[in-house]
Amino acid sequence: MSRATAPLLPKEDAREAALFFVVCALCFLAAFSGLVARAAYAAAGEWTSDVAGQITVRVRGSESDTIRAIELVKATPGIASAHVLTRAESEELLKPWLGPSGVPADLPLPHLIAAEAVHGANGVGERVGAKLNEAKIDAKVDDHAMWSADARRATDTIGLVALSAVLLLAATGVAVIAFATHATLLARRDIVELLHLTGAKDSFVAGLFERRFLMLGVQAGALGALLAFGAAAFILFAVRQADEQAWLLPQLSLSLADGLILGLSPLVAGAAAMLAAKVTVMRSLSDMV
Amino acid sequence: MPEHEFPSDEPVLRFDRVGLNYGPDLDVLADVSMTLRPGSMTFLTGPSGAGKSTLLKLAYLALRPTTGRVSIFGVDTGALRRRDLAPLRRRVGVVFQEFRLLDHLSAYENVALPLRVMGRQEASYRKDVIDLLTWVGLGDRLDAKPATLSGGEKQRVAIARAVVAKPDLIIADEPTGNVDEEMGERLFRLFRELNRRLKTTVLIATHDMALVRRAKADVLRLADGMVVRVQAPPDSPEALA
Questions:
Q1: Among A112, B59, B82, B170, which is least packed by CB within 10 angstroms?
Q2: Nearest Cβ partner of A197 from B87, B89, B126?
Q3: Could you report the predicted ipTM of this complex, rounded to two decimals?
Q4: What is the CATH number of domain A53-143?
């Protein structure tokens, strides 16, 4: 029967428990920030793609002006489709501002034309405006370019901030892991020394600590990532339970990219812990004869 | 200082005018020259603070000398890189004064440590380790952790660990310091048996002059960082010369 099964390094102690907690917390923060950053970028893409190519024409004149306008809009090069919004469609658009009771029957609504440009066509809104102006129709053309640019700038900023937070957290995580690993190893210098004097090669001694701290980093990182997943899932659930305004929030989708972020977190944590252990042990060993 | 030299073609351990200091005025060893021939058994004696432990640390390659040269198994260690010292250390068994047992390992696992470092499989050494621990009187304490062992028991585990890999050189720092006279005698017989049967070279630092007298072995006396007196065993060629 085999007897010598105990690892050469002692099992977890309080120092490793503290390190586990630190790595876990940092991985949670980093993974969650990563998810938020990705969601912000995704939201920016969705918002701008939703409005890209959409042109709204508000006709201030009579109904006959609207009929002339729709013909002109449809005839403009680069327009894929166009139609005059019905009263019901206009009321639906106003619902968020006027509430579920609807629009009063006697309230005049503007005549709106919703048009869609051919994908990739440029300057369509300007051409529509010029045609209507030429035909002396009092109308305002909105191709959402300004709003789209603002939205992209805003979400880009959010994404950049989140990405910076991820990088900062990752760097802090690596530094803290390295520091905590170093402190943990200093407490076990006696083992390092004994193994060294017993004739163990540096790679043998370092390997023991590398494997131990790789596992610690991966396990703590996995737990942190799991908590980030839980937090993201909770927010996703809460957002979906919320009213229609929730679409304004960056959507946490738990997609493949999110899975990649969650999956990479423990690996990065494990690699950082392992590298820190290797550097620390090798440095300790190099101080010895 | 005249060098005491045992006749040997290739000394197991050789100190050539070795000095070690921790600063300009902190000489621990001043000018030590000595040679251990293969298969010899040597006691290192001297008052506390004379530098015995330091000399042993130089011998088991835990320190490098400030001056002079330490050669082991015919190899000048000063010319070696760090990584080249590991194979030499595996040929040396050390009984540390403070035992240096690993608290999380059992007596059995502590003794087996050098064999695990060598990459040996447990099945290949299990019987040897158990036999050795039984021989030192700890056959019923195989699974005991150091915290539950007495000072004498720890010392016996430390000695078993030093000899388990059948090293070419055994260096022991006060190996009988924490055991009674009977156990001290028994442990000494273990060293003597390894020395005679396997021709293992043994260097023991001790204060136990009664043991030294009974042993009839070579004696180096260290005082003020220098080897000041050397005594060969009564029946050795040196003593008869």
A1: B82
A2: B89
A3: 0.86
A4: 3.30.70.2190
